[in-house]
Structure formats: structure tokens, C-alpha cells
Design a protein that fits this description.
6-stranded mixed beta sheet; Rossmann fold; globular; 7-stranded mixed beta sheet; alpha/beta; 2 domains
Length: 416
């Protein structure tokens, strides 16, 4: 157990600035968060140590170790953005913002999205007749986008790919990304590629889970294999500034339990919004550039883990029927970190067909179709998809009317 201070890693260097990074906790051995497996294939399950670290040099929070990208993003990737109505609305608004900032009044604008998933955002550019390209390495979700007529390439984005795309399509007026940049360990190849692809007055807009929200809410389930970075404005500026890209605007988002949208542009090409400096100051006041903040975060995580286990153990002792709601990537961190087995949560219900009939990564809890939830309501449902809480509670009014209760763990463990 780490003491009051965090210590330098064993030779590991920051992916952004090259300084030694400081691991502040370990979640132990973890599986691939989206690695839902058939029950007969769990013996060969891949595991790695999930340990986040902090960099004193540039304030970047990052994983010590990340599995190879091919283990996480492939032809069986189990996340489709379009399954959420809330996300459909969100990405429509995101696309409208991009059109107003980078396409309106321009001749033949060109928009590129990194990690375009099933085309949930690019479909709006396609329907508007705007030239576009999605880059999505997971073949199965890319196929869904292509079936909609959305121009999609199944490759990982690198500076080399950027050069090829410029030669084929020309430079981009806007490059977009949502919940993707935090997945990519070689942040400098991405930043250099964006700098190569953008027009001199183009913009790069991306959003990812926000470090400030994670610290404030003790939402440690934001930390899993795909999230090699949990960004702040300070760390984004440090990473992209090395490639001539300047942070010119920021906008908080409610998605994924608290995200931040960052707008970057070639340095000096656009005015910097006052919101950027305000956020820098807020982050320093919150301690996002100080190691003691992360020592306290670790303690808060440990307290949350104990409270959740105690609650579930008490419900089992009292003979209550408990189910999980939402087989999310986030749930993998919670289940494995807290040591929650199928004795405490016998099954998890999920609407995603590719997950149904499989078991949760690591803890191997059965994943059942959503119908199993409504067929026989449990006494308590653990809300793993807490970032969609308002949407879910509105949908499940019948469950509440029949006396069903929700177990939540962000920002604190409680029954609602």
C-alpha cells in the first residue's frame, strides 16, 4: 500500500513530456474492459495490471501499462454509440457546432472524424452533403457506418496515414473526435497527424472524460484499458502545443459522467476564448497539477469499494434479489476492483445483442437480455450505466413504481 506520497515509477516516462511518471494506485489485474467472452472461453482470458500514474512535468494522468490496441479494438468490438438516444441527440448537436465553426460559408468543406464508430455523428454531414471521412479501426462498427453510406476507413490514425489522406482528399476544415483521443497512447503521432491534415485556419474538436469530474465524483470506473489518458485542459495544452496546436476553447459536457470538449487550432489562427484561462485556473485550484490530489483520490476509491461491497453483502444476507443494469466497460473496473462475483450480483442485463449470452470480463457474471430485467424485476439494480442515469430512470418508471430500488456508487454509494 502506498503511503502519503506517491513514488516515481520504475523507469516509466510520461507519454507527453518524457518526465518520470508517478503511479498513485493499482486496481490490480484487470481484463479487457469490453472483452465479453462466451462462458467456455474464460480460461484463456488476457489480464494486465491497471495502474494510473501522474506526471509532475505536464499534469497528465495516464496508465502505466496499456494492452496492445488490437486486443481492444477489433472486429468483435462490443460498443455501438447509436444504441443510446441521448448520445444520438448529443452528436447531432456536436455536428451542428462543427458546421457553424468550420463549414458554413466555405467552398466544399471537408470533415474528418477519428474513431467514428457506427457513424452516429458523421451521418449528419452525409445527409447535409458535406464531404466527410470516418476513421474507425474496429471493423464491425465501421461496417455499420458504411452500410449507411458513410465514407469510412478501417485503420488506426497515425501521422503516416494523415499524409496519405492529404494526398487523396486534401486538407480538412474540421477534424472531430469523441471519446477516442484518450484511447491512443502515441498522442504525438495523433497530434502531428492532426497538424498535418488541418487547413491553416482549420479546427480540431474532441471530447473525452474529464479529469476534474473524475476526481470530484470519485468515478474511478473511468479508468480502464481503453482510457490510457484522463485529460485536463492543462494536459491537452501540453500535448498538442508541442505540435503547433493551441487550445482556443473549452466546453464542459455531461456525457460519460462528465466530459470536456476541447477546441484546438493552429497557433495564432483563432482568438483564444476567456473560458480557457478560467479552466486552467480552476484546475490548479482543484489540484489537478499536484500529486497529493491523487493520493486522496486513491483513498476515496478505497472507501467507495468498501462501502459498495458492504452494501451488496448486506443485501445478499437479507435475501434480496440483485441484478446489474448495463454491461458497460466501466462495470469491468468496478466489478474486478471491488471483487464482486456472481454470488453478489447473479446477472447483468444489457440491450446490446453482441454481449448477451456472454459473461462479464474477469468476474464472469452472466449477461442477460434486457427482457430478463422486465420479466422479473429484481429488488435492487446496480446502475453500472450511471452516466445515462436520467435517461434510464425515465425509461424505468415501472420498475420504481413496483418498489424497485437502484444501487449507485457515483459520487457515493447509495440506494435510491
Amino acid at each position: 500500500m502506498m503511503t502519503a506520497n506517491i513514488t516515481e515509477s520504475n523507469g516509466r516516462l510520461c507519454r507527453v513530456c518524457g518526465a518520470k511518471i508517478l503511479p498513485f494506485m493499482s486496481f490490480g489485474k484487470m481484463p479487457i474492459a469490453n472483452g465479453f467472452l462466451p462462458p467456455d472461453r474464460t480460461a484463456s482470458e488476457y489480464m494486465f495490471e491497471l495502474a494510473p500514474a501522474f506526471c509532475r512535468g505536464c499534469s497528465t494522468v495516464q496508465l502505466m501499462e496499456q494492452p496492445a490496441r488490437e486486443k481492444m479494438f477489433h472486429e468483435n468490438y462490443a460498443f455501438y454509440s447509436s444504441t443510446s438516444r441521448h448520445m444520438q441527440t448529443h452528436f447531432k448537436a456536436f455536428s451542428e457546432m462543427a458546421v457553424s465553426k468550420a463549414c458554413t460559408g466555405r467552398r466544399d468543406p471537408f470533415v474528418v472524424e477519428l474513431g467514428s464508430n457506427d457513424g452516429i455523428m458523421l451521418q449528419h454531414f452525409q445527409s447535409a452533403g458535406i464531404r466527410h471521412l470516418g476513421i474507425e479501426p474496429s471493423q464491425n462498427v465501421a461496417d455499420v457506418a458504411r452500410a449507411k453510406g458513410i465514407n469510412t476507413l478501417s485503420e488506426f490514425f497515425t501521422v503516416e496515414l494523415a499524409d496519405r489522406l492529404v494526398a487523396e482528399y486534401g486538407h480538412a476544415d474540421a477534424m472531430l473526435s469523441a471519446n477516442v483521443i484518450c484511447h491512443i497512447p502515441d498522442i504525438h503521432s495523433v497530434a502531428a497527424g492532426v497538424a498535418r491534415m488541418l487547413k491553416p485556419d482549420g479546427v480540431f474538436m474532441f471530447e473525452d472524460p474529464y479529469l476534474g469530474d473524475m476526481i470530484a465524483k470519485t468515478s474511478y470506473d473511468q479508468i480502464y484499458d481503453e482510457h490510457v489518458f484522463i485529460f485536463s485542459a492543462l494536459s491537452v495544452s501540453a500535448a498538442f502545443g508541442q505540435h503547433g496546436l493551441e487550445l482556443v476553447d473549452v466546453a464542459p459536457q455531461v456525457t460519460h459522467g462528465g466530459s470536456m470538449r476541447y477546441v484546438l487550432a493552429p497557433k495564432g489562427s483563432r482568438p483564444v476564448s476567456p473560458a480557457v484561462q478560467v479552466l486552467y485556473e480552476k484546475e490548479r485550484a482543484q489540484g489537478l497539477n499536484r500529486e497529493e490530489t491523487f493520493v486522496q483520490f486513491r483513498r476515496n476509491c478505497e472507501s467507495s469499494r468498501e462501502a459498495l461491497r458492504d452494501l451488496l453483502t448486506s443485501l445478499k444476507r437479507d435475501g434480496k434479489r440483485v441484478a446489474g443494469y448495463g454491461a458497460t466497460s466501466k462495470s469491468t473496473t468496478v466489478l474486478n476492483y471491488c471483487g464482486i462475483t456472481k454470488e453478489l450480483i447473479p446477472y447483468i442485463c444489457d440491450t446490446t445483442p453482441i454481449k448477451q449470452g456472454k459473461v462479464s470480463p474477469g468476474m464472469h457474471i452472466p449477461i442477460k437480455p434486457y427482457d430478463a430485467f422486465t420479466a422479473e424485476y429484481p429488488d435492487y439494480a446496480v446502475l453500472f450505466a450511471w452516466n445515462h442515469k436520467s435517461e434510464i430512470l425515465a425509461k424505468e418508471q415501472q420498475y420504481a413504481a413496483q418498489g424497485g430500488k437502484w444501487v449507485v456508487f457515483v459520487p457515493k454509494v447509495a440506494v435510491e
